[in-house]
Design a protein that fits this description.
Length: 145
């Protein structure tokens, strides 16, 4: 059976494609899911994409990943800059974690420059647009092989 990678997405990413397209582009989360699904098939990885506007639901998915996933790709969105709970949950997960941001958070407002998640992440991709997700999937494939 192929290994599964969880792709977790935080608040407002359900609105990708409509939300500030000059910052986040025109692709939707469903476009990202299709691209990752297709690439996953060539890499021999299954993917499960989940989005929530609720911090606790993301924490619970990280707990599920402990038994069900070989790696996590996470765009915590605004929770990046606020959530010790997501950091603590990721610290219970003993496999690769890649943090993705569509925009370059370091080129934006100072409050976006700090990430609670980066101290746990094995890699961080920021500013590659929605391609960041497929780049992360390629890299995580090398980490879990
Ligand atoms: C984001 C950057 C965050 O600062 C912001 O709150 C988001 C999206 C990104 O993908 O660029 O919602 O994580």
């Amino acid at each position: 059976m192929s290994k599964t990678i969880f792709i977790l997405n935080g608040p407002n990413l359900n609105l990708l494609g409509q939300r500030e397209p000059e910052v986040y582009g025109h692709k939707t989360l469903s476009d990202i899911e299709s691209a990752c699904d297709k690439l996953g098939q060539t890499l021999g990885l299954g993917i499960k994409l989940f989005q929530s506007n609720h911090e606790g639901e993301i924490v619970e998915h990280i707990h599920m990943a402990r038994d069900q996933a070989a790696g996590i790709i996470i765009n915590p969105a605004a929770f990046t800059h606020t959530s010790v709970a997501i950091l603590d949950a990721l610290n219970t997960f003993d496999a690769p974690v890649i943090e993705v941001h569509i925009s370059n958070i370091y080129k934006r407002e100072p409050f976006r420059h700090h990430s609670y998640i980066s101290g746990r992440a094995d890699a961080v991709i920021s500013g590659c647009g929605t391609d960041g997700y497929t780049l992360a999937l390629r890299h995580i494939a090398t980490l879990v092989s």
